[in-house]
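Hey L., structure's done. Input below.
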Amino acid sequence: MQLDLDDLNKFKEWLELDLDSISWEGRFLEEFEDFWNALFIENRNVEFYFSRIDLLKSKATSGPLVTWFNWLREKFICYLFLYKGFTIRELGIISLKDEKAVALILRDFFIERFPHLEESLNDSFQVGTKISKNLQLTFKNIQDRLVLTSGLRGSLEDEVLTTLEVTLYPDWKTIHELLKKMNDDNKINLDKMVKGASFNKQLKFFQELALLFLFGGLLIFTVKVINKHYEDYLIQKISLFEPNFFWLDKSLSFKSKDPLAANEVELSYKELEKLEALESKSVFKDETSSSRYDVESDVVLTSVEALPRDFTVADLEQSEYEEVKKGGYRDSRYGRRKAYRVMMTSVNPKETKQKLLKVLKFFEVKQVDNVKPGTSIPGGLYFNLYVKRNNLKEFLSRVSSVEESTILESKTVFGGPYGTNKVFIWIKNI
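Output:
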């Protein structure tokens, strides 16, 4: 598709650029207008404009100027989606950008203008696979489904890039001259220039990588040499204190052990148990004052059948070691509270969500903080809940019956209100 002069002028007006600020109170207004007209030449394919923006961005060395070109590129994608009827798949092809990235750009654009429709917009722009039906989504589809207005603003009041003084950056002059040269000489191959810029970046990367390996190798070699010298020094020092048994009578020979003497020093099993208990207490006597800022304990795979019958006493269960060794030490750094994570997959997360909401209502489950149950995130939905301990096993059983699930159990220091356990449910979209 080609864009005529009316389309290009409409896009410029739609951006709502503050030309007075961009051109430093109008001092470089003529220069900026010349740059804009050289960039957006009429009656060219949309691929042409994306290639020019990418080339100029590759020549920019100032961070704000690179950001401005990225912002201009994303706004151009949104404009084509709104006014030229392009689908997400088509925009991904012509902009040489991943389709998921294009969907994310459009999603953010609409959420900024319609924050109350965030959940519906998340569903509309979710692209999970290459065969996702949302890849064929157009603005007309969203407009009919969500009853949106057609006159959407290109920029909002709080956007700073509409007023960025791009003409004041030192690399602006270079970019402007390159653009003029491109228009004067039609034989310039844009693809070749883009590849050349890419090659230079790759060459610079490999140079830096080679230097990194060189310095790394020198550092390792230096450390090895220093360690070798230090080891030799320690060996020399230790050799000075080696015992010399000049008094040893080599005629002596080993004799067999006397069974009676062995019996005299043999400890009973009960004495050994007491000794172990005393040693454990002495080793861990200062455990109460140790730091308790370690991470949570490792997650252990379990099932509904493996859950305890009574969760009110589950945290007080003794280990096999504690039952056998009455004086044994129990490491309680991670606490005795348990949290449960339910991982499930679904081809229709919205339907699964509705089923789970009914289960939550039945068991009077409370949400954690202000996290709404069934919140949408890229890839699926999640629930963060407090479940009453006396209903926990039945609750997990009911949840596991909704979809095929995997339950993970972990110890945690931080618990919820008294008489509850923390349950996290993740629904992955497949």
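The radius of gyration is 35 Å. The first strand starts at residue 2 and ends at 3.

-- N.
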